[in-house]
Prior knowledge:
Helix content: 40-55%
CATH class: Alpha Beta
Number of strands: 7
Strand content: 5-15%
Distance between the termini: 36 Å
Bound molecules: NADP nicotinamide-adenine-dinucleotide phosphate
Largest sheet: 7 strands, parallel
Number of domains: 1
Amino acid sequence: MFASLSGKVAIVTGGSKGIGKGIAKVFARQGVKIMIAARGEQDAKEAVDDIIAAGGQADYCLCDVSNWQDVQALLSKTLETYGKIDILCANAGIFPQQKMIDMSADDWDKVMSTNLKSTFLTVKACLPHFAKAGQGRVIVTSSITGPVTGYPGWSHYGASKSGQLGFIKTAAMELAPYNTTINAVMPGNIMTEGLADLGEEYLTSMAASIPLKRLGSVEDIGNAALFFATDEASYITGQQMVVDGGQILPESLDAINEMT
Ligand code: NAP
């Protein structure tokens, strides 16, 4: 049994859709007060309404996580609304599929800014508050794509997701004096609206390549993130957890076929 997180305050970037929405719901069910950060108001409002309808507490702040002013405003709104910040879920990300031959320098920069620079900016904005409180938690949503696997069209994405894992190792050392941990979850293929856009054929072949024979749910990632936020995980920092139904394990197609 884990100690209660009730009354803690969490920012969930990208909490208006997909995995972030799942993380926000899982945390809110445990009594965590949620601040969702995203650019689109409609989705953010709906995500907040869902949490409130389920008995939780939530608000949103319109924010581009790659913009330092926006991120500072996110912290200000969180402090005005809830009076403190305990947990940062640095989750917002984009994954446009573009092979290098078609990728422009701007395309590369956009993915790196949204996925990687944002991780630094959001941690930087929370850091003084964690330092003052003498505690804090950061959970970064990385991916298996980049750190472990490759996929044509995602060189920029994979680099950004590997970059996040590089970042947390030094960040863990810089945050440790403030009793603040930083860890990453590395999702496999998780069923979200964003992934649904990749088409039925992609989803079916992907599920067939996963030993547990299903795509993950957003709650699967929310539960892993929740563990890193608990008191019981207080001695874990700078680490990463793959949550992928065993997707990275098979050596080859033969290995998957041998399972049946
Ligand atoms: P999604 O369904 O497309 O949701 C992305 C979220 O990020 C939305 O809330 C979006 O809201 C927000 N966002 C995007 N750009 C933003 C920006 N510049 N500023 C603020 N918010 C922004 O994506 P997802 O699949 O849940 O992915 C979430 C995270 O999980 C990403 O970091 C991704 O790399 C990682 N991941 C996903 C999978 C998967 O299978 N789905 C697997 C591995 C890792 P707005 O567009 O309104 O801003």
